[in-house]
Model the fold of this input.
Amino acid sequence: MIIEKFNLKAQASIERACRLAVEKDHGVVTPWHFLYALLETKNHIGCEYLKQANIDLVILDSIVGGQLLAQPKALKSTQQTPIDRELERLFIHAEQISISMDDKYIGLQDLLMALWELDEWVAVLTEAGGSKESFRKMLQNTPKGGYKSGENIEEFEYLNKYARDLTEQARQGELDPVIGRIDDINLTIQVLCRRIKNNPIIIGETGVGKTALIEGLAQRIIDGDVPKDLIGCSVLALDMGLVIAGAKYRGEFEERFKRILQEITDAGNIITFIDEIHSLVGAGKT
Done:
């Protein structure tokens, strides 16, 4: 299955499971490796999901640890460590669950719910105090909806990784006051409130205060000094340097940017500020 179908947290857990199998010299990567990757970090979001599903983490950790000790070792001639059939089935069931929940990507909560589709895991999760109903409630209670500053870290992973939340900074008093730019900020607000062609571009020499205008807008939103169309909106400054950094292969930058745009669309209440927007031209070609 294509790794891009999973969200960032799920990708990181799957990659950790693969590294764990290699570190322990096991022949294949199994669901046991995946669960161990979640349990080894006690404050991991996956552990929080398990707690919400009434799972006793101590009991589950003991069972998973015992199963890992019993995993067969890899042959000396083996060059790769593939995933086994059970983990493939887990991914397929998780994809079906994410589609039924109308999620864009497969998350940890989908993978955990999918464990109930594997016969071996039904007994394990039941022994640890869980039930399919408690997992279903956990899945349904996973927060969704518009972007909220300081929240929704799981749902908007790419935005939290590649963007700076100016409204949250304004709420915390981390932005300097903007003086003498009321007319410019009002014009920006006027353009943003249009029904169509509502994307303002701020042009000027370096240092004239283009970013300060957007910070002033964020402060106006926090103060409630904006039209009702902008009440509850969040202003996020996209860091193009971070988005482009590390995109070594053709298409990697485009995939990141597509995910960012998808999260912005899903939120429905985000104003995105792209500094140095001209840097987008030709980005990701090499």
About this structure: The longest strand covers residues 234-238. The CA atoms of residues 92 and 159 lie 27 Å apart. The longest helix spans residues 8-23. The mean pLDDT is 86.
